[in-house]
Amino acid sequence: MQPPRNWMIHFLMTLAMLLIAAKASAADRPNILLIVSDDQGYNDLGLLGNGILTPTLDRLAKEGTRLTNFYVAWPACTPSRASLLTGRYPQRNGIYDMIRNEAPDYGHRYTPEEYPVTFERIGGMDEREAIIPAVLKPAGYKSGIYGKWDLGALRRMLPTSRGFDDFYGFVNTGIDYFTHERYGVPCMVRNLEPTEEDKGTYCTYLFQREALRFLDEHAGKEPFFLYVPFNAPHNSSSLDPTIRSSVQAPDRFKAMYPPVEAETRVTDRYRYGAPATVATPQARRRDYRAAVTCMDAAIGEMLKTLEAKQILDDTIVVFFSDNGGSGGADNSPLRGHKGQTWEGGIRVPCIVRWPAGKIQAGQVNDEFLTSLELLPSFAAAASVEPPAGVVLDGFDWWPTLRGESASPRKELFWKRRDQIGARVSQWKWVQMGEQGGLFDLDRDLAEKQDLSESHPEVLAMVKERYAHWLREMEAAEPRGPFRDF
């Protein structure tokens, strides 16, 4: 017996509505691929013409929007990473200095009894802080992180205790690319367990392998947040001066660059153990570039996988460096480098690709934007609410990236111990020990002309805005590990 015709029509209409709703739901939950390099210079993109080979990053810029006025919240690793994941200033989320041991700076290798009670082992991000994967989880996102964590090594502080579903990587600020040790201490972890299963394999290859495995398991089946924080091109963390003075890279990527006359030199001035054999500046520059090119190839494999699954255009791809470049990096035309509040320590390369989100291809955007914008922007793209009762220091950047409105950001402040940076509109005040001054970034991006004497009223205004920010940070609900409460 045939069902009534109106029943069949109703069934088909209901099915169509469900399919439309499912499609709309998927559109409201774009995939997210966040890629962060480590210590990459502002000018270290092949498309900028300095000779470095980055075909994948060049492709991202051609198919997306390159940000030229993009900042991170601190000029070095740990606080920068905490801020990009929380959307909060380092002084607000509690990670306003490095989680690292300083004894290896003087050649000390920790014993198995010493290391477990050092700050590098027991320090970590306050457990009350909400990070991106936890914010996206209610919308059904699967999340993975493969690479550098740097926000705590104890189990309760590891990524899978903070909202990530899967983790493989190292927990400290830097490692030897092959042994996966930090100054002799094994640092690789899978989820909650230490592992040396892949010792001897170049770690960029490992992070590529894990990211591709994650995509094979989840891409096209459910929305995902994939965070790949490479350690390339960070210097190698080894007590051997020859290794430590450069960046490890596979030979096949070194061979892509012109040979150098001398690989090493002997110096009588070294932080410990002089005389020491160290890499020549030319070798260090080549090794740095080779590490970047190897990382670029790994990113290319991720894009190929997303293309094969026909979801690349529906995936938000964001790339930037965690702070300014050092070692063999090229930060031109900026002044300074990693660890400093000059532009070269805090303004970094950034690229965003998302055709389905109407991010235009081949555009260069000079709006004032920062890594603090990531969490609120990802939440907006996924149609989820940001964490309740939490003060965020960023905003939804999509209208600005689409060219619909100017960036609402007018200020940003940095404090690294006694090093200060404050930007208000185009004005930048820097205090770097005995150096510093007031600079007009619209006319003097290289921070060469100090305008303190010619514009005292502007300097006073910027200093007052900085003082206001300090008071706000001091009044914020305290977070560990550094704050006394």
TrEMBL record:
The keyword Signal applies. Residues 30-382 form the Sulfatase N-terminal domain. The keyword Signal applies. Keywords: Hydrolase, Signal. Its EC number is 3.1.6.4. Residues 1-26 form the signal peptide. It comes from the Bacteria. One of its GO terms (molecular function) is arylsulfatase activity. Pfam families: Sulfatase (PF00884). Belongs to the sulfatase family. This is N-acetylgalactosamine-6-sulfatase.
